[in-house]
Amino acid sequence: MSADTGSTEIHQGTDDVQGKRKNNVSAIEKIRKFLLDEFPKYSSKITMDTMRPLPTFLGITGPSFCLAPDAFTPPTKKMDKNSAEKISQRIYLNFTYFLTNYAFIAAGTCIIIILLHPRTIIYSIIVCALWKMHDMTEQQNTPLILMNRDVGQYITVELRTRLLYAITLYVVVLHCLKPVITAVGLTGLMIFSHALLRDPKQIEHGSSYMDDESSDDDCDSSGSEVMVETTV
Predict the structure, then answer these.
(1) Is the C-alpha dihedral spanning 124, 130, 132, 134 positive or negative?
(2) CA separation for the pair 42, 36 (Å, rounded)
(3) Distance from C-alpha of 102 to C-alpha of 117, rounded to nearest angstrom
(4) Are 13 and 166 contacting, i.e. CB atoms less than 8 angstroms apart?
(5) Those residues with Cβ within 8 angstroms of residue 168's Cβ, 6 or more apart along the chain or in another chain
(6) What is the per-residue pLDDT across 83-126, written as a single tens digit (0 to 9) for each?
(7) HSE on the CB side for 227, CA within 13 Å?
(8) Taking 90 as the threshold, does the pLDDT of residue 128 lie above it?
(9) Are the C-beta atoms of residues 197 and 74 closer than 8 Å to each other?
(10) Closest by alpha carbon to 177, among 188, 189, 168?
(11) Position 153 confidence tier, pLDDT thresholds 50, 70, 90
């Protein structure tokens, strides 16, 4: 009787573990499917045709190229039940309109931070070269000859793979993690701040000012409205 109970508990434990693994796999597959479905939608919109001019992006108007007083404003003047909707609507409008500009900001920030960490570049190249050599020797079944001796029988493919995984983890944690976090943090902060504060009602004031060739020298806030933020 006790043996049957013990076997039943083991089967239940095995089923629970398998169920957790299936849930984890399904969650990962959902995330992967979401990224594969959403990324092409946005990447296809990142073109030079959708690149907004710098005066439009920064809200610069007038012949003296000064910042318009209403270029950057808070999305709501007071917090109420509709504040969250106004904030999300402004972020969505700006993110959609300035998508290419944001992509260039992200790429430029990543390039600058990578150049500021030359060790990360060197170690990453070394790791990639080691993995490339490992793949070539494995595919072509190339013997590892050292001092006229085949060391492949001692350093097996499985052992080399584990060593490369350990080296890769070491490089990623100690040399790549900090630059990646810095790049993501700075990029997210700049893009989020601009998308939150850039007023869509004044989105093309700078370009419309120069196109109209008005004689006003001051930086007023009048301009064409191409993005209208609905207020509730």
Answers:
(1) negative
(2) 11
(3) 23
(4) no
(5) 127, 131
(6) 888 888 889 989 988 999 999 999 999 999 999 999 999 999 99
(7) 20
(8) yes
(9) yes
(10) 168
(11) low
- The residues, any chain, with a CB within 8 Å of residue 187's CB and separated by 6 or more, are 105, 106, 109, 110
Give the pair of three-digit tokens for residue 146: 């050292």
- As a whole number, mean pLDDT of residues 2-28 equals 51
Query: Which DSSP string do the residues of 107-162 spell out, in sequence order?
Result: HHHHHHHHHT-HHHHHHHHHHHHHHHHHHHHHHTT---EETTEEGGGTS-HHHHHH
Higher pLDDT, 153 or 71: 71
Cross-strand bridge partners of residue 67: 60
- Measured distance CA(222)–CA(211) in Å, rounded: 13
CA count, 13 A, side-chain hemisphere, 62: 14
For the segment 161-178, the average pLDDT, to the nearest whole number, is: 92
Alpha helices in 44-117 (DSSP H): 54-58, 83-97, 99-115
- The pair of structure tokens assigned to 51 is 């690149």
Q: How confident is the model at residue 67 (pLDDT cuts 50, 70, 90)?
A: confident
pTM of the model: 0.65
